[in-house]
Amino acid sequence: MGLFSFFRPKKCHFCKKKQKNMATYKSDDGTTINVCHLCREYAERRAMQRVK
């Protein structure tokens, strides 16, 4: 983990693509996950709560 690792795009929890603009959701077991804009609909269908 480098000094500037927070500048790198994060990976989507479902499709594993690296993107800059990610939404944060809370999964069923209480962990927070990052979801890209393509997988947001899937996360909402699974009734995950969005963290703001």
Folded structure, characterized:
It contains one helix and five strands, in the order ββββαβ. It has one helix at residues 40-45, and strands spanning 10-11, 18-19, 23-26, 32-35, 49-51. Strands 4-3-5 form a three-stranded antiparallel β-sheet. It has a two-stranded antiparallel ribbon with strand order 1-2. A hairpin with a 6-residue loop joins strand 1 (10-11) and strand 2 (18-19). The radius of gyration is 11 Å and the shape is globular.
The poorly predicted ranges are none
C-alpha end-to-end distance: 25 Å
Helical fraction equals 10-25%
Shape: globular
Tally of DSSP β-strands: 5
Overall pLDDT: 89
Q: Determine Rg (CA atoms, Å).
A: 11 Å
- Indicate the proportion of strand residues: 25-35%
Order of helices and strands: EEEEHE
Largest sheet: 3 strands, antiparallel
The helix tally amounts to 1
- Strands side by side in the biggest sheet: 4-3-5
What structural class is derived from the secondary structure elements?
alpha+beta
Keywords:
single chain; about 50 residues; three-stranded antiparallel sheet; two-stranded antiparallel sheet; 1 helix; 5 strands; about 30% strand
Tell me briefly what this model is.
The protein is an alpha+beta fold. The chain has one helix and five strands, in the order E-E-E-E-H-E.
